[in-house]
Design a protein that fits this description.
The chain is of the alpha/beta class and about 140 residues long. Helices cover about 35% and strands about 20% of the residues. Helix 3 runs parallel beside helix 4. Homododecamer.
Length: about 140
C-alpha cells in the first residue's frame, strides 16, 4: 500500500510554531515514528508553502497511490483549486488538521477540501495523521 502525506503552508514549522496548538514535535520526527508503526505501508511525504506545488503533487499521485493524507493548512479555507484537484483524481484523500478548526477563528470553519475528500479528521493533534492511516488499512 502506498500513502503520501501532503502538508501545506507553515507545517514545516511544527515543533517551533505555536506549540500550545501544534505541539513541540517536528513533523519529520513524527513521520519517522509513523512509518515505524506501519512498516507494511510505503509512505512518502511532501510539504510546500506554495499552492501550485500542492496541486501538482496531488495530480502526480492521484491515479497511482492508494491514499493521500492532506493537511492543506490555511489553503483549506481559501483554495477552490486544491478542492478541484482532489475532485479530479481517483486516489482517495483524507483531510486532516492537527487542531480542531471549529474551535478556532470563524474563517477556519470553511473547507474547500471536505466536500471532495473521503473523510475529515481534526483536533487530535498529530494523532490525526495516524487515524487517517488507519482509515486506509481497515
Amino acid at each position: 500500500m502506498k500513502i503520501c502525506i501532503i502538508n501545506g503552508p507553515n507545517l514545516n514549522l511544527l515543533g517551533k510554531r505555536e506549540p500550545e496548538i501544534y505541539g513541540s514535535l517536528t513533523f519529520e520526527d513524527y513521520f519517522s515514528s509513523l512509518t515505524n508503526r506501519f512498516p507494511s505501508i510505503a509512505f512518502t511525504y511532501f510539504q510546500s508553502n506554495i499552492e501550485g506545488e500542492l496541486i501538482g503533487k496531488i495530480q502526480e499521485l492521484g491515479f497511482s497511490y492508494d491514499g493521500i493524507i492532506l493537511n492543506a493548512g490555511a489553503y483549506t479555507h481559501t483554495s477552490v483549486a486544491i478542492g478541484d484537484a482532489i475532485k479530479a483524481i481517483t486516489t482517495p484523500v483524507i483531510e486532516v488538521h492537527i487542531s480542531n478548526t471549529y474551535a478556532r477563528e470563524t474563517f477556519r470553519h470553511q473547507s474547500y477540501i471536505s466536500g471532495n475528500a473521503k473523510g475529515v479528521i481534526l483536533g487530535f493533534g498529530l494523532k490525526s495523521y495516524e487515524l487517517a492511516v488507519q482509515s486506509f488499512v481497515i
